[in-house]
Amino acid sequence: MGKIILAVIVLALFAMAEPTFAASVLNNIQVQASVADACRITTPATNVDFGSYDPTDPADDTNGTSSISHKCTKNTTYWYYISRTNTMSSGSNSLTYQLYTDAGWTIPWDTAKTGLGTVSPNNGNQTLDIYGKITAQQNVPAGNYSENVIVTIEY
Description:
The chain is mainly beta. It has one domain: Immunoglobulin-like (Sandwich). The chain has one helix at about 1-15, and strands spanning about 40-45, 60-70, 75-85, 85-90, 95, 100, 120, 125-135, 150-155. The protein has a four-stranded antiparallel β-sheet with strand order 1-2-8-6, with no helix packed on it. The longest helix is centred in the N-terminal third of the chain and has 15 residues, at about 1-15. The termini are far apart.
């Protein structure tokens, strides 16, 4: 009789067990994203501070520098240009200067988009250096001279 009770219990346990399935169906989903060309300034441009300018000094050595950093999506083509008049003012008085792409002051910055553009090699920071020079012996009175300049990164 004990064997019969044991057999009934085992059969009852099998009856309560989850059924096993011999078939299945699959459904594929696609995971997607769109990556756009994008650029952002990561470090704003610093001011080009020429310091004190002596209009009586015959040396053409009043210089200033600036830099700006940005990031663009890898392989994005971008252009820099710097909008300005190359003239600082103090009231009605003017002091001319030039901005250059190189520390040797040989290649002036364009004021409009030109050239083929630069292709971002990666998503990392790119730094643009700006070099400025005031021409010697300009006929100007004492004063504080300035001009607002706009650096544009177009992509």
